[in-house]
């Protein structure tokens, strides 16, 4: 099935995947060495911690899962619909994500677990927002679905079946965006430590402002 999404959604998906790559690297390189942009590994770690009775880690990991889910809940409260529409409050969601990332910086600096939770909440909000406006086609904070789509495309190619070019292109762009974000995030973290999160915070804030301006321009064009 082809993907019919506006150009601004494609650009936003790549930009947000880059943001997630930067944020996740900060989580990995930080004092807890914990992924914050996706929950599969964290859930496995939670199972290990429960089995071994490491209750401090259990509390940390449960908090991480809850924070990500609360971020997704906030997206649902703000956007309120699964239909892609310029009038939706995507800019508000992006501004809130930016604020959560800014909040995470001082918390991380004081080695507070709340820093990881704030970053995870920001990622949950972002992923839910992208899922909402793409009908689950776009996931910007983890890559399992993107690599799955590429694998399916390779299987179709080997069978001589038609290739879903748009889906494969989008998957490749999101993977590239996330990887680029990881490289940039690691480079920034080596120099600025947790202040490296200023970059994704500014990017989400700028994207939110850009969306609001685009929405206003579109509204005037229609009027």
TrEMBL record:
Keywords: Membrane, Transmembrane, Transmembrane helix. Pfam families: DUF1275. The keyword NAD does not apply. InterPro entries: DUF1275. The chain crosses the membrane at residues 7-31, 60-79, 91-108, 114-138, 168-190, 196-214. The keyword Membrane applies. PANTHER family: SLR0142 PROTEIN, UPF0700 TRANSMEMBRANE PROTEIN YOAK. This is DUF1275 family protein.
């Amino acid at each position: 099935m082809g993907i019919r999404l506006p150009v601004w959604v494609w650009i936003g998906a790549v930009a947000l995947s880059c943001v997630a790559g930067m944020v996740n690297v900060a989580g990995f390189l930080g004092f807890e060495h914990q992924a914050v942009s996706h929950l599969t590994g964290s859930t496995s770690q939670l199972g290990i911690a429960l089995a071994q009775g490491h209750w401090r880690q259990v509390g940390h990991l449960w908090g991480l899962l809850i924070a990500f889910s609360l971020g997704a809940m906030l997206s649902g409260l703000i956007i309120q619909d699964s239909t892609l529409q310029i009038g939706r409050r995507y800019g508000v969601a992006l501004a809130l994500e930016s604020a959560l990332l800014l909040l995470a910086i001082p918390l991380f600096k004081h080695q507070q677990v709340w820093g990881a939770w704030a970053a995870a909440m920001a990622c949950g909000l972002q992923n839910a927002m992208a899922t909402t406006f793409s009908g689950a086609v776009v996931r910007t904070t983890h890559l399992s679905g993107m690599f799955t789509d590429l694998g399916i495309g390779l299987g179709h190619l080997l069978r001589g079946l038609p290739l879903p070019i748009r889906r494969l292109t989008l998957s490749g762009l999101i993977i590239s965006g996330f990887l680029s974000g990881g490289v940039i995030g690691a480079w920034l973290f080596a120099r600025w430590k947790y202040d490296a999160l200023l970059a994704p915070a500014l990017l989400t804030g700028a994207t939110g402002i850009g969306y609001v301006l685009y929405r206003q321009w579109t509204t005037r064009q229609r009027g």
